[in-house]
Amino acid sequence: INTFEFFLRKSMIIHIYSDASKYKILKYLQMEELPHNVFLIKSKTPMNDILMMSQAEIICGSPHSTFVEWAKFLRPVEFPNNSFSLIEKKQAESVNISPIKWKNFF
Fold first, then answer.
1. Mean pLDDT computed over 2-12
2. Are 62 and 11 in contact (CB under 8 A)?
3. Alpha-helical regions (H) of 19-101
4. What is the pLDDT of residues 81-101, one digit of tens each?
5. Among 57, 52, 106, 53, residue whose Cα is nearest residue 84
6. What is the DSSP letter of 29?
7. DSSP code for 40
8. Which is nearest to 7 in space by CA: 100, 70, 83?
9. From CA 4, how far away is CA 57, in angstroms rounded?
10. Model confidence pLDDT, tens digit, residues 18-60
11. Is the pLDDT of residue 1 over 70?
12. Helix, strand, coil shares, percent, the chain, to 5
């Protein structure tokens, strides 16, 4: 939830890509509803989700997620590496799924 607050304070729109249902996501986040400007994106295909994530201004996720790592890898070169890891730097660096490093850490 602190992550939501961080981005919402910057007046950003947040898209959540997950194969979990809205009910499961709300339960995991311990929330009754998603905050204003936070949207759960209905998946069309896994590849579409990865490509849509790669086009985002900022990618925020877990370094354990291969979807997030593929989105970072497929990100156009003209986009800066605006990535935020949801786990600490030391733990994120130990994962080593991708050669593309995370820029910011929560």
1. 85
2. no
3. 22-29, 46-54, 66-74, 89-95
4. 788 888 888 888 887 777 778
5. 106
6. H
7. E
8. 83
9. 15
10. 988 999 999 988 899 999 999 999 888 999 999 999 999 889 9
11. no
12. 40, 15, 45
Structure tokens at 73: 């890898």
Residue 59 dihedral angles phi and psi, to the nearest 5°: -110, 125
Largest CA distance in the chain: 38
Q: DSSP 3-state assignment of 34?
A: coil
Task: Determine the Cα–Cα distance for residues 77 and 20; give it in Å rounded to an integer.
Answer: 30
- Written as six digits, the tokens of 1 are 């939830």
How much is the pLDDT for 86? 85
pTM for the full predicted model? 0.81
Residue 58 buriedness (CB in 10 A; 0-12 / 13-18 / 19+): middle
Report which DSSP code applies to 102: P
Structure tokens belonging to residue 59: 């990618």
